[in-house]
Amino acid sequence: MANIMVRKDATGAYSFYLPKRDLEDAIVSMEFDTPDKWGGEIKLNNGGAYYIEPQAIPARFPISLRAKRLDAAE
Amino acid sequence: MSALTREETEALIQEVLEVYPEKAKKDRAKHLAVNDQAVEQSKKCITSNRKSLPGVMTIRGCAYAGSKGVVWGPIKDMIHISHGPVGCGQYSRAGRRNYYVGTTGVDTFGTMNFTSDFQEKDIVFGGDKKLAKLINEVELLFPLHRGISVQSECPIGLIGDDIEAVSKKGAKEIGKPIVPVRCEGFRGVSQSLGHHIANDAVRDWVLDARDGAPFESTPYDVSIIGDYNIGGDAWASRILLEEMGLRVVSQWSGDGTLAEMEKTPKVKLNLLHCYRSMNYISRHMEEKYGIPWLEYNFFGPTKIAESLRAIAAHFDDKIKEGAEKVIARYQPMMDAVIAKYKPRLGGKTVMLYVGGLRPRHVIGAYEDLGMEVTGTGYEFAHGDDYDRTIKEMGNATLLYDDVTGFELEEFVKKLNPDLVGSGIKEKYVFQKMGIPLRQMHSWDYSGPYHGYDGFAIFARDMDMAISSPTFKNLVPPWKKKSETEELKKAA
Fold first, then answer.
1. B432 burial class (0-12, 13-18, 19+ CB within 10 angstroms)?
2. Which of A10, B9, B334, B418 could form a disulfide with B301 if both were Cys (CB 3.0 to 4.6 A apart)?
3. Residue A66's CB: how many other CB atoms inside 10 A?
């Protein structure tokens, strides 16, 4: 499990930040992105994949979450 | 000298790598690259933030340097205790030129060195008692200090002292905040982790001190984050922001105070200059307090105008007008500076090797002077810095990460730039080779270089270095081949 931060950039797209590795990247796909179910498997631009427990959409961004690493890019 | 083609640059890298043993060669090859603006992600072409190779000459610092030297050190009204042996603090004391206002030793302590001076017995029996005693002594001798930070040196982590407990107890006794920072030098691969640790310490021990406290805010409150006031940089930036109608609540951390740090969560926008060292705290404030942050660049009139407009875009029309007014007011002065120096500097080439921000930030300023940056590299940048750099640099220019002494010398010999911008450790090597060098860490005892006022000084300094006649006379006359003409002229 890793602590990650999800934020919305200026265009409204999600971006991913992993403080421990100082890894900042765009989220290219998110499994669930509806108001009451949000999260699931997320894919990063660099090829990595993480899993966020599906939950209601956070009230505001950025938000720190726990995520499971499915597939690291490096 | 004209720019190299992609193939030539690649060949140059291969040639330089040739001297290494097989394993080292493989490792170093990942850190050297030819810039290609088409690449979206830097990690496809360059590896960064990795452990330096043992045996090569690196100029990186340690986590303690990143925390005490960079982030915490300039907070002027706090006393920063270098906890551990005496050398780390003493040999880095007052060398960074982060200016401040105040009476040193009375209410400000920026250039002083406070250390617990570890001896053998402190290593054997632990140094907690000594730290507690030191805190009381500091309070007795310097009653006007506003707080203390305990900056750990390597032994503290190795012997497992509990500086947090001592700090908490001490803070209760003296009634002022004491911040323990676990920035032991052995952590991480460079000073970069020290920045992160220092940011985390600010987050945990300082930032929420005034949550809920009354504060008279205006809609135009901003803070300057990551400007260390080298030679007065932050002041040159601050006047521009104030002139366009913003209120600068705090400066981090050049000429900054503890109170300013505590008030930062009240601002409307965080302006981030040094992304590498302060993005962590900006991200935290964005999440916890909903304060957006914005990277800006105050080097050279083109980038300044761009940044001022980007900053103004976060505010109402009054500020937008203000920004245009500021740009209109200074542009004629800048045009005069460029008219004066561009004919002297136009077409000259420069190679940079600095810390974590300037290798890309100053490119715009050089381009304003008509100069070309043919190679750039960072000591301790991460992937996201290179992502940003690729766009700033021309195609087929050279990128080098954590470059070794040997590599940099070879690159400079081959690319033969008119100027090198790096630090004191490189300065005399290159000047003896006959290439002028300006220190881009300390502004070579000049500055400020930020802001419009800074650009005029920047242009003058670069001209002084490049146009100096000294470097033409490094080869003694009897070794010159066919310069009888030049000799006559000189005589």
1. exposed
2. B334
3. 11
Sheet holding B419-422, edge to edge: B32-34, B398-401, B372-378, B349-352, B419-422, B437-439
Tokens standing for residue B423: 């630090």
Chain centroid to CA B342 = 27
Using DSSP's 3-state secondary structure scheme, residue B350 falls into: strand
Q: Which residues contact B485 (CB under 8 A, 6 or more apart)?
A: none
A20 touches chain B (CB under 8 A): no
Please give the pLDDT value at position A46. 82
Angle at which helix B233-243 crosses helix B317-345, to 10 degrees, equals: 140
Instruction: Tell me the C-alpha to C-alpha distance, in Å, between residue B437 and each of B223, B288, B343, B349, B440.
Output: 33, 44, 20, 12, 9
Of B43, B192, B287, the CB nearest to A5: B287
Residues near B100 by beta carbon (within 8 Å), at least 6 away in sequence: B74, B76, B108, B110, B229, B254, B255
pLDDT at res. B487: 58
Structure tokens at B119: 């001896």
Annotation marks residue B195 as catalytic: yes
Asked if A62's CB is within 8 angstroms of B280's CB, the reply is no
Pair of tokens at residue A37: 């179910």
State the residue for tokens 């302060």.
B278
How many Å apart are CA B465 and CA B431, to the nearest integer?
A: 10
Q: Which residues of B touch A10 (CB under 8 A)?
A: none
DSSP per-residue codes, B358-387: HHHHTHHHHHHTT-EEEEEEESS--HHHHH
Instruction: List the beta strands (DSSP E) in B232-297.
Output: 247-253, 269-272, 293-295
| Candidates B41, B280, B287; nearest CB to A64 | B287
Residue of B nearest to A7 (CA): B287
Residues of chain B below pLDDT 70: 1-3, 481-491
ipTM of the complex: 0.89
3-class DSSP assignment, residue A15: strand
Instruction: Name the pairing type of β-strands A38-44 and A49-55.
Output: antiparallel
> Does B253 sit behind a cis peptide bond, omega within 30 degrees of 0 on the bond before it?
yes
Distances from the Cα of B68 to the Cαs of B51, B71, B196, B423, in angstroms? 21, 6, 12, 19
Residue B258 tokens read as 């503890």
Closest CA to B116 of B102, B140, B132, B104: B132
- Helix/strand/coil for B434: coil
Contacts of residue B372, defined as CB under 8 A and 6 or more positions apart, other chains included, come to B3, B347, B348, B349, B350, B366, B394
Contact B68, B89 (CB under 8 A): yes
Instruction: Write down the pLDDT at residue A21.
Output: 82
Q: Map residue B290 onto helix, strand or coil.
A: coil
